[in-house]
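Milestone M4 deliverable, item 7.
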Amino acid sequence: NKVSIANSLQYIGNTYRLQGRYSEALDNFFPSLRIREELANKPEIAYLLSEIGNTYRLQGKYREASAYQS
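Output delivered:
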């Protein structure tokens, strides 16, 4: 089930981000985002874009962060 996979990837990404493992977080957020886009789940797409932006911001990558946050 694609929704379950997307949810799992998102939760794993959140866990990695909380641990300060930002690359691993992004490695899970992006596949989750792709699935959400396939399913056209706009609220979850918006949430993940924000999470990706926040993760880049936490790394001090402000240019990348701004590309994902509005």
